[in-house]
Design brief:
single chain; 196 residues; mainly alpha; 8 helices; disordered C terminus
């Protein structure tokens, strides 16, 4: 339980720092429901963490009926990471990192955070939860599904964000996906016994 709690705290903190310090200052769009939360922030000034929780709720209901262990293990990651994303929003005003470096650095940090959660059977939001479910059903690496979902959100986000950030958002998403793919392949979730 201590290992899982530390994984949730460390992984969620890395995700929140990556989002607030590297992504938000340049109006980049990340993938999955985090990306949808960011689109809500840019377009309507919604709190991204709260938006993620609201949009993830139906997906967690699906998990509750189909893969209850993922529901119980994932709900903590969702709540903690979403809370920290909103809590650490003030650091976005202190970032002066160029957009290219932000895309790579933010993607790497977020990817590590997501990987820490995934290898401990925890997810940070709905899309990661669905990716875990699909990975268990198909034996395809979870990072592949995350990369697909993230790319889809980038296409949707292109309606909201300016053309100059599309390339860098895609670079961000690619970095998150490949970082997650690398770390989850190196230490696969099924190699760690789930703690329920």
């Amino acid at each position: 339980m201590i290992r899982k709690a530390l994984a949730i705290l460390i992984g969620s903190t890395l995700i929140a720092i990556g989002i607030n310090y590297f992504v938000i200052p340049h109006h980049l769009v990340e993938g999955g429901l985090i990306g949808v939360g960011l689109i809500g922030k840019y377009a309507f000034d919604f709190q991204p963490g709260l938006t993620i929780i609201i949009l993830s709720s139906p997906l967690y209901l699906i998990a509750f009926f189909h893969e209850r262990s993922l529901f119980y293990n994932g709900i903590h990651g969702l709540l903690v990471s979403s809370f920290l994303i909103d809590l650490l929003r003030p650091i976005s005003t202190h970032s002066s990192v160029p957009i290219f470096i932000s895309s790579l650095s933010g993607g790497f940090i977020i990817g590590i955070g997501i990987s820490i959660l995934l290898i401990n059977h925890v997810s940070s939001g709905g899309m990661a939860l669905i990716a875990l479910l699909l990975s268990k059903k198909t034996s395809i690496n979870v990072g592949i599904f995350i990369l697909f979902f993230d790319s889809l959100i980038i296409l949707v986000g292109s309606v909201v964000i300016s053309e100059t950030t599309i390339f860098y958002s895609a670079l961000l998403v690619g970095t998150v996906g490949f970082t997650t793919l690398f770390f989850t392949s190196f230490l696969k979730p099924k190699e760690i016994a789930p703690l329920t």
